[in-house]
Amino acid sequence: MDSNLSRRERKKRETHRRLMGAALQLFREHGYDATTVEQIAEAADVAKGTFFNYFDTKEAILPALAEWRLRQLEDVLMPERGAPASPVARIKMALCLVAEDPLANPSLAGRLFAAIMPHRQEQDVHPGRALARLLADQVHQAQVAGEIRGDLDPLYVGGVIRTLFFQQLLIWHCGQCPGPLPDLLSGMVDLLLDGIAGPRWRQSS
Amino acid sequence: MDSNLSRRERKKRETHRRLMGAALQLFREHGYDATTVEQIAEAADVAKGTFFNYFDTKEAILPALAEWRLRQLEDVLMPERGAPASPVARIKMALCLVAEDPLANPSLAGRLFAAIMPHRQEQDVHPGRALARLLADQVHQAQVAGEIRGDLDPLYVGGVIRTLFFQQLLIWHCGQCPGPLPDLLSGMVDLLLDGIAGPRWRQSS
DNA sequence: TGTATAATATGACCCTGGTCATTTTTGTTC
DNA sequence: GAACAAAAATGACCAGGGTCATATTATACA
After folding, report:
1. Where are the domains of chain A?
2. pTM, whole model, 2 decimals?
3. Who contacts A28 (Cβ-Cβ below 8 Å, separation ≥6)?
4. Fewest beta carbons within 10 Å, which of B19, B82, B89, B110?
């Protein structure tokens, strides 16, 4: 598959991959802040400037890493692969799996979240929407199955779930939050499903 | 009120206020990134090092600014002051008002959000939960009024609303999102109230 | 193979956030 | 008010993110 690419393209992808691998390892080992761009570049055997030919900023490597890790998740979510038949259950499963990834550790998750959020005017389709899209896909399937209202934009709902996922993850990690993380995440999804309306709201609306 | 404070305390508060004022003005004028700590210190007529006697980091001034601005909002939310009688309507109103604040502009909102989110282990009660607490207060009133389920922790729900508020704000600001922002925010609250469950989920759960 | 052109790599350099030893100010005690 | 202690201000300094002019490498074409 790579053979019909030019040598240039092959080298480029190779360097890209080496940078990501080096970054992931160093982040895991020393955390985000304690890892310098120079160290990443060094470990990938390129000069510091080269790093910035591949990523606009130090933070920009995080969404790329996230997308990389997420691709492996996609086929685990197939019902044929043993995933639950219920789309909502699959959503919960996906969140639990993501939460277990080394990228979801306290030091990185916050940075990743910040990097994913559209700080500034994003021109084109920005990366880091990988999780939102993966979730949107499951949301769509849940809509077909009737587990989620059909009148909502799947990508919108996917974005909401992703955002709340990060919030819960961060709260659980460094706030003091009772119980295991999977329960917290599952409860969050249930809350979103059932809504927060009380009796007087439901009857009036 | 200040007269029974020592001169030291008075000067300290005065400097604190000057730093915040200078920062707000410069951020408004040039944006967050284009404003340096030295400029803020200069405008507040202190040395750069002094800034860091008052705020741990450049970002740390944002939650302080937010809290400052938010205090004015609190009494506008009193029903006696003309605010809606329905707590849920007051929540929506609060979000719209916050969205209009200069701090909620695209350049700052993202940074503020990132600063508010617990990146790392926060030891004590961290600042920047001001909005979550304000919302939690309204949520509690909504629970008393029966508009929101009584079995939920108000602070939890307040945190959820705050997080989704920022998400919507950022999406609307720099994504392309149809319609006026107040409608988007109101719709977001309604979604949270009604839940996203479809017919098959409701009957099965 | 030689040459021109575009893509990529490089590291010296700059800027700014953040630190810290030192100085200045304030409060206290005699 | 002199002497001392505690608090606060200061700016030289450092580290690391990010830039850019230049050097190197790959491709195209004769």
Report:
1. 1-57, 59-197
2. 0.92
3. A102, A105
4. B82
Alpha carbon distance A65, A17 (integer Å) = 10
Partner-chain contact B106 A121, CB within 8 Å: yes
Across the interface, do B118 and A110 touch by the CB < 8 Å criterion? yes
CA of A56 to C1' of D21 (A): 19
Contact B111, B59 (CB under 8 A): yes
Which residue type sits at B43? A
C14 C1' – A57 CA distance, angstroms? 17
pLDDT digits (tens, 9 = 90+) for B71-116: 989 889 999 999 999 999 999 999 999 999 999 988 899 999 999 8
Residues of B in contact with A197 (CB under 8 A): 147-149, 193-195
Which residues sit opposite B114 in a β-bridge? none
- What superfamily in CATH does domain B59-197 come from? Tetracycline Repressor, domain 2 (1.10.357.10)
Model confidence at A205, in pLDDT bands (50, 70, 90)?
low
Span of A42-51, A130-139, B1-10, B165-174 with lowest mean pLDDT: B1-10
Most confident region among A115-119, A128-132, A139-143 by mean pLDDT: A139-143
A1-57 architecture in CATH? Answer: Orthogonal Bundle (1.10)
